[in-house]
Write a structure and sequence with these properties.
Elements lengths: L4 E4 L3 H12 L5 E3 L11 E4 L1 H9 L3 H4 L4 E3 L1 E6 L4 E6 H4 L6 E5 H11 L4 E2 L4 E7 L2 E6 L4 E4 L1 E4 L6 H5 L7 E13 L7 E5 L3 E7 L4 E9 L10 H8 L7 H7 L4 E7 L6 E2 L2 E3 L2 H4 L8 H18 L4 H30 L3 H24 L3
Helix pairs in contact: 1-5, 1-10, 2-10, 10-11, 11-12
Bound molecules: flavin-adenine dinucleotide (FAD).
């Protein structure tokens, strides 16, 4: 039997899932509610396990010329004094390279790899499970029936709620500021300056550009600043190291809030959640894309193994993915809690033990999935 599969969402997770399914021999439909002209603006950091998953999806060749390879993560205090550093090449040896690149470029590689049409401007408006199949209504009123619906519709997933798999995402209390800077200082490392309930991360992302990702912890009732660039300049005004030169070159700044999605299960009948819809976390470990890419590899494998028994394949998917995604969430929370310890206590501790603590948070992800 040829499985009728719908992938909802054409972000990193949806496109990678479509690729994983194609590699496994399936021909999914893919829909995306946004227009095809929407191009994500920021950069993205992909650690070694993301590269491994991209390689397993057969995408290492198109990725190779893109962005900049990153060999070291350097952690500094707000005055620019070194706390510790992580040798990424050693940490991810035998797994894959760590790379920073434009999100638009990554999106294009994934889109080209899908090998079939992505129907843009097409939202899933409603989903009903009837006799083990999923009846889907699209925004234009068209109805269709599928044997399997993969919800890659992001942390605010409408399908998660519609299928009764979980409620809204939980805000983490972080505001994130992102920018792509040209004309900043020449940098070759991923550099993070830790402040008081805030951090400033900057890295090269190819084409002599820098990707800047900064965040602050806020109270739940806090609203996003009206002028994010002014807020960034105010927040990091006293920071040293490369920060003053980066702030001077800063132009457009995007502001976002981050959320967590914590669920007991990801599958119900013929519906499966993947990517942020299933397991979003704050982006502190930069594992969101990696987890979405790994999901895509595993989903292709389990469906190929039991194409005639979708529920068994979805159970196998959950078994292979849940511990790993829980591990990412727990280490993300630990990292954020450490970040928010007052610097007078935190910084001496990180000078002594930061390298071991932070490298250990990735150790489990070095293992195959
Ligand atoms: C500020 C920030 C910084 C980050 N930085 C990093 C990083 O450096 N490295 C990293 O690995 N990860 C990072 N992440 C996380 C990473 O971006 C995500 O984990 C990853 O992109 C996977 O997202 P997704 O595809 O599951 O969801 P999304 O990117 O949210 O995609 C969901 C898609 O579904 C579409 N959609 C939604 N509802 C419907 C519907 N009803 N019908 C049709 N289409 C629909 C949406 O339009 C969207 O295109 C960051 C996240 C944030 C918020």
């Amino acid at each position: 039997m040829t499985l009728r599969i719908l992938v909802v969402g054409a972000g990193i997770s949806g496109l990678a899932t479509a690729r994983g399914l194609r590699v496994a021999g399936f021909r999914p439909d893919v829909v995306e509610e946004l227009p095809a002209t929407t191009v994500p603006g920021a950069g993205i950091f992909l650690p070694g396990n993301a590269s491994r998953a991209l390689r397993q999806l057969g995408l290492d060749a198109p990725l190779r010329p893109l962005g900049d390879l990153i060999f070291r993560q350097v952690f500094l205090d707000a005055e620019g004094g070194e706390l510790f550093e992580i040798d990424l090449a050693a940490l991810w040896a035998g797994v894959g390279e760590s790379r920073a690149l434009s999100r638009g470029d990554l999106q294009q590689v994934l889109l080209t790899s899908v090998g079939g049409e992505v129907r843009y401007d097409t939202a899933v408006r409603d989903l009903e499970i009837v006799d083990g199949a999923a009846k889907v209504e699209f925004g234009d009123g068209v109805l269709a029936e599928y044997d399997l619906v993969i919800a890659a519709d992001g942390r605010r997933s409408m399908i998660r709620t519609g299928a009764g798999l979980g409620g809204p995402a939980i805000p983490t209390g972080q505001i994130v500021y992102r920018s792509v800077v040209t004309g900043g200082p020449p940098l070759s490392d991923w550099i993070c300056l830790l402040g008081r309930r805030s951090q400033f991360v900057v890295m090269p992302m190819g084409g002599r550009r820098l990707y800047v990702h900064a965040d602050e912890s806020v109270e739940p009732e806090a609203v996003n600043p009206a002028d994010p660039r002014a807020r960034m300049r105010e927040l990091f005004a006293d920071f040293a190291g490369p920060v003053p030169a980066v702030l001077a070159a800063l132009e457009k700044v995007q502001v976002a809030r981050t959320d967590e999605v914590v669920l007991d299960g990801w599958a119900k009948g013929p519906v499966l959640l993947v990517g942020d819809a299933a397991h979003a976390t704050a982006p502190t470990l930069a594992q969101g894309a990696a987890m979405a890419l790994e999901d895509a590899v595993v989903l292709g494998e389990v469906l190929k193994a039991t194409p005639d028994d979708v529920p068994a394949a979805l159970r196998a998917f959950e078994q292979r993915r849940q511990d790993r995604c829980t591990q990412v969430r727990e280490h993300t929370r630990e990292r954020d809690q450490t970040r928010d310890v007052p610097p007078a206590l935190r910084d001496p501790m990180l000078r002594r033990r930061g390298q071991r603590i932070f490298a250990d948070q990735y150790r489990g992800l070095v293992e195959p999935f």
